[in-house]
Design brief:
By secondary structure, the chain is mainly α. The chain is built from ten helices and no strands. The chain has a single domain, classed as Mitochondrial carrier domain (Mitochondrial carrier fold, Alpha/alpha barrel). The two termini are 41 Å apart.
């Protein structure tokens, strides 16, 4: 794959596919927001199972987590804590597409390229990495709230308390935020920020980079050697679904161990007994201590616990996001030319 990426990087952008005019800032924000909403509805039940597998020892595997969650909480259990990440996904994707396009524009300006020039793959990966750093500071508090709500009920599984559903610590996202601010100050909302930045920098680079790479490979397969690549607008739904799905898988494969560390830090005060894995409950562990604790819990495989269901949801969720963004952008461009 590296040789393919290098070949695309060395390809003269001026002879590459011409792109549609870059959407305006407000359009990027609006279209990215809607794309994030669509993707989150698709992926959230899978994400709940992933976080519970990452942070709790109450389950023997994915099927057991599905069974216990359904038995104890019903279908709504898979959507517990949805409000915060739904808003967060809309904000994150709006910011992601906005930042990605603006960073590309800045690179073109600094390197003296034309506005419509398609950047080489190396610069697209760099644009994605910088976008990830920007997004991390927006989504870190959102994911902190989400993770706490997702794992809170797990501690009561099998206990008499679970026969009384009303007994929960948090009533919703605002309850979590209020508790964190009261007990830890505003800094408490950024527990796990270091691994979040690392995950997003690496993951988003591969998210956008893989999407662009797959799209270009499809376009190259349709063009003759030496000819400019067709426009990305010529790609149909099947191609976008493939590219978007591959982007989601690439994001998770490259960043998943970091995500486990992030989730572990953000739910440290929610774990007891076997789930504490050597980290004192109620105390926020550092990154190094968390890596050691996760490793002690099951060696290298512990850093990939829950990966299967994550990859299962990654393809359809990310395909939905890119489909939504691409077709809204095309519709907007068509309306402006009429």
């Amino acid at each position: 794959m590296e040789s393919e990426i290098q070949a695309l990087s060395d390809h003269n952008p001026a002879t590459s596919t011409s792109s549609r005019p870059t959407p305006g800032g407000l359009q990027d924000l609006a279209f990215g927001s809607l794309a994030g909403m669509m993707g989150k509805f698709v992926e959230y039940p899978f994400d709940t199972v992933k976080v519970r597998l990452q942070t709790s020892a109450a389950f023997s595997g994915t099927i057991d987590c599905l069974r216990q969650t359904w038995h104890n909480e019903g279908p709504q259990g898979f959507y517990r804590g949805l409000t915060s990440p739904l808003v967060g996904a809309m904000a994150e994707n709006a910011l992601a597409f906005y930042s990605y396009n603006r960073i590309q524009a800045a690179i073109r300006s600094l390197s003296g390229q034309e506005h419509q020039d398609v950047l080489p793959m190396s610069q697209l990966f760099a644009s994605g990495a910088l976008t990830g750093v920007v997004c991390a500071f927006v989504i870190s508090p959102v994911e902190l709230v989400k993770c706490k709500l997702q794992v809170e009920n797990v501690q009561a599984y099998g206990q008499q308390q679970y026969q009384q559903p009303g007994k929960v610590k948090f009533k919703g996202p605002l309850s979590v935020v209020a508790h964190l601010v009261r007990s830890q100050g505003a800094a408490g909302l950024y527990a796990g920020i270091a691994p979040t930045v690392a995950r997003e920098c690496l993951g988003v680079a591969f998210w956008f980079g893989t999407y662009e790479f797959v799209c270009r490979q499809i376009l190259r397969s349709r063009s003759r050697p030496g000819e400019p690549l067709p426009s990305k607008d010529s790609l149909g739904p099947g191609s976008i679904i493939l590219a978007g799905g591959c982007a989601g898988i690439a994001y998770n494969l490259t960043s998943y161990p970091i995500d486990v560390v992030k989730s572990f830090i953000q739910t440290a005060d929610m774990r007891v007994g076997a789930d504490s894995a050597g980290v004192e409950a109620g105390r926020r562990p550092g990154v190094v201590a968390t890596v050691r604790a996760v490793y002690a819990r099951g060696g290298v495989p512990a850093f990939y616990r829950g990966l299967g269901i994550t990859l299962l949801r990654a393809f359809p969720a990310n395909a939905a996001m890119f489909m939504t963004y691409e077709y809204l952008t095309r519709l907007s461009a068509d309306l402006r030319t009429k």
